[in-house]
Task: structure prediction
Amino acid sequence: AVVSNAEYGDCGSLLTPDREDMTEEESFEYLPHTDPATFVAEFQKSTSADNKIKFHTGTTTLGFKFKEGVIIAVDSRATAGSYIASQTVKKVIEINPYLLGTMAGGAADCSFWERLLAKQCRIYQLRNRERISVAAASKILSNMVYQYKGMGLSMGTMVCGWDKRGPGLYYVDSDGQRTTNYMFSVGLDLLTLMVSWILVTVTKCQ
Result:
């Protein structure tokens, strides 16, 4: 999913690391491995118990904010314990044409709260005669779920989109925690933890 500034002008091309007009914060470093599958396979076939990696199934959602917009990437598998319930779940939820939410955790929780957020965003637009900002939408979601903190909700979502201030990317979880950054990895499996570690490492190296 890609959210860009289509309403305000040309979408432009996606940013690449060799663009001269990119700031340090907007650039992404490539990993030193051109083929991730081959790199991971080396560890999966390792005879050493310390080096062997066994991937567990689960949700992986990624979000990247750059100058021209936001890119969201998600998987499509839903599991119930060890049972694979579906391979075609839509984990990107449209809040409005310029706002997207992602699903990680309990499918029912994510779906319900983001649908409720869509309703609140529409009410805001009718009252104020302008679209809600990404920051305000994420704050509304955070305030709503915070009231149910400790009551068993399971939700880790990214709220992203485009408003008059440009691209926005926020992380909100079921405890009401809300934070912003220019890249996130959210999910429930070992692969997500590895991706998170890679993103943190790349960020520190910049």
Notes: The radius of gyration is 18 Å. The CA atoms of residues 95 and 118 lie 5 Å apart. The helical segments are 36-44, 107-128, 134-146, 190-205. The chain is about 30% helix and 25% strand.
